[in-house]
Write a structure and sequence with these properties.
Blueprint lengths: L4 E3 L6 E7 L11 E7 L1 H14 L9 H14 L2 H4 L11 H4 L2 H12 L9 E7 L2 E3 L3 E2 L3 E4 L38 E7 L2 H16 L4 H4 L11 E4 L4 E4 L12 E3 L4 H12 L3 H17 L3 H16 L5 H13 L5 H15 L10 H10 L3 H16 L13 H10 L18
Parallel strand pairs: 5-11
Antiparallel strand pairs: 1-3, 2-3, 4-8, 4-9, 6-7, 7-8, 9-10
Helix pairs in contact: 1-2, 6-9, 9-10, 9-14, 10-11, 10-14, 12-13
Length: about 425
Amino acid sequence: MLSFTFNCSSKKGRSVSFMFGRIGASAYDKRFGTELHFDPDLLLDAAFYARENGAKYLRRVPISKIESLLTSFITENYYCLTEGEIFHDFENSYEEYLSDRSKEAFYALLYKSSIFNEVVSLYTFPIQTVDVLSDYYSESFSIVKPDSLLNVKTTVDLSIFDIKPSLYPPSERPINRHYPFKSWLCVNAASIYEANKMKAAILSCLSLKYKDSIRRQFNQVDHMGGHCCFSDDKMSFQFGVAHTPSVSQSLKLNGADHECLNILSGLFLSRTDTDFRKLRALEYFYRSWFLEESERFPFLFMSLESMFGDGRNANQSVLNGVLSLFGDTLDLQRVRLMAELRGSIVHGGAPEIYDSRKYAKYYKKFSVCPSKDLDLLVAESIRVFVFFEKLCRQQDEHHEVIEQAVKSGRINAYNDKSIFSESKIK
């Protein structure tokens, strides 16, 4: 790290000006100012080294963020580099300038830092579409009612923070505007990047509780996003984009769902390639949840490839994978045509599925949109392959009214021509 760091005299690379004091000094005790320069090429090399040899969470963090972690560590611990002299000029890097004793002290701090050690924080996301009827707790994540936040399993002592769990932001300070929400999704993670990936997999899992037609049935209600971060000595929060689309019906999380969530918790703790691919499939499915029909198709197919792709013959491996799950109940001709349509999109032949002749061919042959069929296929594949059919489906809130209307003849029965008719799905 010290090889890419230069004194202000060198004027080499990007510069940063900052205030400093003794190690651990508070902001108002940092009374001296200085400037450092960082060689961009050597900094990039150091970032890749940290990514490959540092804490595991860095492998899921952007390189630019790792560079910021490295430079921030240097500025925060700059007092180690002064050797008792606040103002000194030299042309060489700090690696060449410093004494062995100073370098040893600096690197001792480095190896104890979050760059080489995973420091787990608690990240909490306010969710507006999930009604928790039975709190769920595990070592990796929890989904709880607002008032149950202080009961989540975490290494952070939440009792030291003056928070109001029923509010978001969870503080009654007059400057805060509070937003309504129904539950807390809490994850233990080393970074917000890892926490967001876990959030995506968890919410993707919960979205599969919906009847497939309801999952894409959005209304015009604006949802608020954001998260809180709790570490050993501080709490922070920020606002952001919504964590789920604004679905017309809320999800109900009850005790019957805990078995499925235990499977998901096991995936987070697993180190096998198969389980890693299952989590990636859930992430792709989560991304597709927000997208329009014409845009979600490639993400849905990526979800299938995460589960079944072998990297050599993607289409055939996907065909073999879904065949192993559903056998004769599945029309493989549909899957082959979907794969051809996917090829048109990802290889530059069709920015939207409607631009491809294969879209019209599929619709004409099967009387259903290929994007809808692929959505059903991916959802059912995840239910079977990832969760072993343990997911509990949630009834449409209006199913009794609809059934009565169909029986009385006031509305026609739905003629299901999708890849999975309701009679085929257990």
